[in-house]
């Protein structure tokens, strides 16, 4: 046995009211449902959603279907559980009830992100984010997996810079908060709409790597075409909501400069 | 409709964590088209949760006397001799090369002042042999492999099926052999079921942490996919070997891991010497702190293997009542270290602790307790021993094989041998945590990432060769010896699809409109009770009696589950149906875990039986194979000798000061 992992002698649970925006999919009408959930100290939004799934009864006592949501790691490293909580985009697994609704009778509202098509309820389809990583060729072009010795040596400073950028978990917070990033479902239009801060920052990440650099030109081509870095309006919302504190405005500025330089070079080369 | 119609060779990889992605990269490089199935976008796979690092011999350690062989020996000793030794030797041999490759892929490994890859100490070793990227190494490695896979995806060699769930392996019997020729999978958004053809299928579906309710695992790690293979006839190896990690933060929905790297970087585990000491940690002077791991294990200190640290913490809290604040928790203390250094090396986990507990571990010791973490057991797999000769490395070189590593004939694995990591169902492979092969009875820290990537890269070639052989080997009459999947009659797939469709329809029909749905048949309640029972009976300390009771309980849960009720009858994105279906498979795997734990009447590695406290090599230096008996819906066990031909079992004490030399000191290898 492991003995009980719930250490504290359980205090009486208190009740927190959840307002949840539900819909059956993209383009379908949405509705709000409320649930009164008994919570213990230390609970978070996901554990409350699990309680709702176990007993899907609204606060009016009406039976309903369990709310659908997306989650993975439950420790803020996979990015899956992103949603809009009390009007602000963030991860739901790290959203502690004690902080968000400290008083008896406090409410918590949950909505799906608005910049991505809804699959159902709180679950949205973020395929576009991963496809956009293809647009900027987000990889290091390896010769192959055979044993060819170590990669390039790297200074500590540069490693620290790259490490920070590499922590991006494709959660989409920065995209949800960006005024320039729009909901789009048309495949063709997607190719031309603004890629957003996360993708720009990833392009910088790969351009910083000795071998990754070999695709720099292609990446800058992508970022100077429609949907590229010039569409950023510099509102800086992105950097404020990034849970990993990735220096997004720094990345945008760096890539903006690189794109300008790239265009000038192209101009003189007569390309 | 068959997705892969028209093309010829085809492989399916189920699971997009490190093992699955590494396999895709290797298969992509070999030019074999691959369909990749995953419950989640692959970039969100559970591998992101791995924190500490990845082990490999390196030049610095080598010049201090370390070697690949030493890494191999540590892994075997750590695993209490339960792992077959040849695959482990091969893995240790390839480790340095795998690190080099990851380095070339751009993984931001921490650097030394001069720009070389930095190293840290980790459990079970006295040498610095763990490479790391902050305290989010798994995330960084997964992203690198995700990027390489994306490249093959852009080239059209890899096709992703994300949010698709594996339901069943499709088998086909030809002559005397039955082999896996595809899978049935379901899109969890549209709920469409489809049959997919493949010449080989790789299960890289991770571990079953969820059968213990709260663990350090992600919400998708329910073991259902592995359980379905077991139910379809694949043997399951060493199900009883479940690792409980010593240091996690207990939570309402899961236990969050605090990596072993915290101790590797200097973290110290202690409790106040006086029971009931109410002073805060920093007010307790050094002399009044009990650093129990350091005192009991002077050589390894806080870096004894996980099962040992876990049992010591458990003993301190549960038996001696010395837990901090009288609760089941001990201090994991980093406060004696430079906060900036900690941020650079451990930022990722410190962030998690701050986020979920609310205090800053740089200035206040963390409070931690053990939690279920990893399954050494998994689907049973076979292998072919190495065939290379030293001195003439390419002498027996088979086209398509990798050039051999420094090894001797009959040692390690034969690179590219089609049977490497193949399950007991031909054509069905198991890689990564889903594979039982590498860690014996305890996994050493920072060996998991290695085994996952090793499987994908090294044994990915075995899959490619198996598929190539299918397509080239002709029998004497000019036909294929075994029919490639593309030429197998459609009816094989239609029938398999019908069976799964019927199961799905039956489950969907179990919707209850009843507002007073009883807990009796509620899948969430059944899973919660299962988790509580498993955690109580089958983790740190097990007893025959406790296990017997748990078996009775799980069988009762199975009976209740037979009448499971769903709260949602939706024909699309029916998450609770997907969950309920998995609960049925979890119950079967849990039952096997209990039955195997009960049958193994000894203590070995992570498996500790209070009623059989010693290792018993005479009876149990054996792999436990669990085989599903469809007639009784219960497991049957078979025992196979472990290949210990390279290192002989020795007592596993880690230099404990009060340790009694074990009775069977020089127990001879049973091979
Ligand atoms: S700075 Fe650019 S990317 Fe960031 S929120 Fe503003 S417009 Fe969007
Ligand atoms: S940059 Fe930050 S906010 Fe944007 S996707 Fe990455 S982690 Fe999320
Ligand atoms: S579930 Fe992974 S970030 Fe919340």
Give a written overview of the molecule.
The complex is a heterodimer of chains A (271) and B (671). By secondary structure, chain A is of the alpha+beta class. Chain A is built from 10 helices and 7 strands. In chain A, a hairpin with a 2-residue loop joins strand 3 and strand 4. Chain A is elongated, with a radius of gyration of 22 Å. Residues 3-8 of chain A have low confidence and may be disordered. Chain B is built from 16 helices and 21 strands. The longest helix of chain B is centred in the last third of the chain and has 25 residues, at 448-472. The radius of gyration of chain B is 24 Å and the shape is globular. At the A-B interface, helix 1, helix 3 and helix 4 of A face helix 1, helix 4, helix 5, strand 13 and helix 9 of B.
Write the layout of secondary structure elements.
The complex is a heterodimer of chains A (271) and B (671).
Chain A: E1 14-23, E2 30-39, H1 45-54, E3 82-85, E4 88-91, H2 97-100, E5 107-111, E6 118-120, E7 123-124, H3 127-135, H4 156-166, H5 173-176, H6 187-190, H7 197-207, H8 216-224, H9 237-241, H10 248-269
Parallel strand pairs in A: 1-5
Antiparallel strand pairs in A: 1-2, 3-4, 3-5, 6-7
Chain B: E1 11-14, H1 18-29, E2 34-38, E3 54-55, H2 59-62, H3 68-78, H4 85-104, E4 119-120, E5 130-131, H5 137-154, E6 158-162, E7 164-174, E8 177-187, E9 193-197, E10 200-203, H6 224-231, E11 236-237, E12 242-249, E13 256-257, H7 261-264, E14 268-272, E15 289-290, H8 292-296, H9 306-319, E16 330-333, H10 339-357, E17 366-375, E18 378-379, E19 428-430, H11 448-472, H12 490-508, H13 523-537, H14 544-561, H15 575-599, H16 617-620, E20 622-629, E21 634-641
Parallel strand pairs in B: 1-2, 1-10, 2-6, 10-19
Antiparallel strand pairs in B: 3-5, 4-5, 7-8, 8-9, 11-18, 11-20, 12-13, 12-17, 14-15, 14-16, 16-17, 20-21
Helix pairs in contact in B: 1-5, 1-11, 3-4, 4-11, 6-15, 13-14, 13-15, 14-15
